[in-house]
Amino acid sequence: MTDIPRRAISRTAKLAALPLGFAGRTVLGMGKRVTGLASDVISAEIQQRTAEQLFSVLGQLKGGAMKFGQALSVFEAALPEEVAAPYRQALTKLQEAAPPLPVASVHKVLASQLGPAWRDRFVSFDDSPAAAASIGQVHRAVWRMPDGTGRDVAVKIQYPGAGDALLADLKQLSRLGGMFRAIQPGLDVKPLLAELRERITEELDYELEAESQRAFAAAYADDPEIYVPAVFSASPRVLVTEWVEGTPLADIIRNGSEQQRNQAGRLMATLHLSAPARAGLLHADPHPGNFRLLADGRLGVIDFGAVARMPEGTPEPIGRIAGLALRGDADEVMAGLRAEGFVSSDEPVDAQALLDFLRPMLEPIAAEEFRFTRAWLRAEAARLASPRSPAYQFSRQLNLPPSYLLIHRVTLGSIGVLCQLEAKAPYRGILERWLPGFAPVS
């Protein structure tokens, strides 16, 4: 594997092969069913082979295909267990690894971004990548400080051609909605892809990412719970930041203790809810590969390529309406949602039915403590996504205003990770501290 494949024909062929391969295996399964093989065995075999092909191709393409795979992976906890099991290993691979960029290409990017004498800026540089993601890979190095000392750093290097590849991949993936509906019937990937497209330009600009990371670092300086590494150097395609040692959340999801899971979940919720108030920013890429649990118990955050600028903090109506719903004030909930555009001004909607629709979603903050679980998320996904469900029918009367789309997507992604962690924490107390308008429940 060299640089990101640049020829559209090559990339399109790889992506186009996905639904064809899936269809072929489905036909194979039908054939085996005729021979008497149990349908659940066929289904598991088809799912596993589809997962292997799907995520192998997404990972090889890097670019937008892998970015989409990472975004999709945080929703793995919502899939039924018999479907989720064959996907889990392939999904977590996307969160932490991808085929590496050749050494010659790495050096070429460093020379173009840091100058021909780029080696002089490092005490040492490891040519083998420590991690790889959707649009770049990370190398470990020792940065030469002005006083001659060295600091352990992470050097993020953007793949050549990443911008064109991102746009091309997302355009192709938008045509594969049917395949993902075969994985999960209620799954609509088009809004996710549209929102990812809007963030591409920002994620490709490492200088902008450095600006966001510095803002987070300033907001959480000396914080006892959240750790944001320092930025040492930034150019459009190379970012040098402090190296962070810790246990990746993907490892904690797989093998972590209950204490680690609960700690990681509580701190992720704290970061998600406090950042708009403290930094005027929302960390908008909540997949496990972006977080580490440090030895001292803090949550290390290592990627700020996707953020939402929220200079006025989280919109006050979110907290106010959630509090009203918990207190059972159906008419005020209706009025608040109508004012924000969630309910059409001329749509007749029963206020009590609306409250009944919302209350299960608020279960995590109805009590002082709550444990997010895959089973809880699967039940909610089934309630909201099945066309036969009354909640699904009711949801068709509601809107998601564009101004809330990103907040909604990031919150769902964060909940997906909390459910993968199966984390128990006092989430209501975190909302009471950080969410504007959220009044304590008596």
TrEMBL record:
PROSITE patterns: PROTEIN_KINASE_DOM (PS50011). The keyword Disulfide bond does not apply. It holds the Pfam family ABC1. This is ABC transporter ATP-binding protein. The keyword Transferase applies. One of its GO terms (molecular function) is ATP binding. Residues 124-442 form the Protein kinase domain. PANTHER family: COENZYME Q8, PTHR43851. InterPro entries: ABC1_dom, ADCK3_dom, Atypical_kinase_ADCK, Kinase-like_dom_sf, Prot_kinase_dom. Belongs to the protein kinase superfamily. ADCK protein kinase family.
